Amino acid sequence: QSVLTQPPSASGTPGQTVTISCSGSSSNIGSNYVHWYQHLPGTAPKLLVYRNNQRPSGVPDRFSGSKSGTSVALAISGLQSEDEADYYCAAWDDSLTGYVFGTGTKVTVL
Amino acid sequence: EVQLLESGGGLVEPGASRRLSCAGSGFPFSSYTMSWVRHAPGKGLGWVSAISESGSITSQADSVKGRFTISRDNSRNTLYLQMNSLRAEDTAVYYCATGDRNSGWLHWGQGTLVTVSS
Predict the structure, then answer these.
(1) Side-chain half-sphere CA neighbours of B101 within 13 A
(2) Tell me, what's the pLDDT at A3?
(3) Which of A1, A48, A96 is nearest to B47 (CA)?
(4) Which of these, B34, B32, B3, lies nearest to B96 by C-alpha position?
């Protein structure tokens, strides 16, 4: 069940910054941590950002997360060709008592 | 090194059952909340079910409630997903992952493909 809304696509040239938005509600983003995942179909998803703005060990600082109210954003700076992938936000939803994913954003490096 | 290895996928007929397994190693399995997440062809990621460290608390997505059951055997370091009354829309790669609402899903398996078709 996707109740978090993301733009379907985003693009940029190498070196540029791309920002992906994720909009939710008070029962999910507004009251819980948001995490971001990078996914190349056919491979395991990768955790990029957890707890809104924290990076796991090994994730480059080109990836950064932010949160404001019931929306979050993932910024990818210094865009590289290997950043071409699908990106998803996810959070726990208190009303659904389950996790919800964003609709996903496909990032293309031009 | 943390490893998660799913198994049990394959081709199943609509209405049939299938059990997926996820064997964990390289970490204290019984100390981690676990989840199943799926990726249907041409669609986005979708959360399926989660289970607490002890197995006493579970939750499922509405789309699988009453049909799928998550469980774990901490003595075998293995997570399970019993899938009953399978439908075409359950066709997906199923991943197991460690983590919870506060930490996110850090470690993932390689996935196992379930295809529901006659």
Answers:
(1) 18
(2) 83
(3) A1
(4) B34
Is B103's CB within 8 Å of A51's CB?
yes
C-alpha B113/C-alpha A94 separation (Å) is: 30
Mean pLDDT along residues B11-34: 98
Mean pLDDT, range B91-96, rounded to an integer: 98
Average pLDDT, 10 consecutive residues per value, chain A (110 residues): 89 98 97 97 95 97 97 98 97 96 97
- Who's near B5: CB < 8 A, 6+ residues apart? B22, B23, B24, B25, B109, B110
Smallest Cβ–Cβ distance between A101 and the set B45, B50, B108 belongs to: B45
Among A33, A51, A88, the residue with its CB nearest the CB of B45 is A88
- DSSP percent split of chain B into helix, strand, coil, nearest 5: 5, 55, 40
**Residues of A (4-33) whose Cβ lies below 8 Å from B:** 32-33
Token pair listed for A90:
């996810």
Of A31, A61, A60, A68, nearest to B101 by C-alpha is: A31
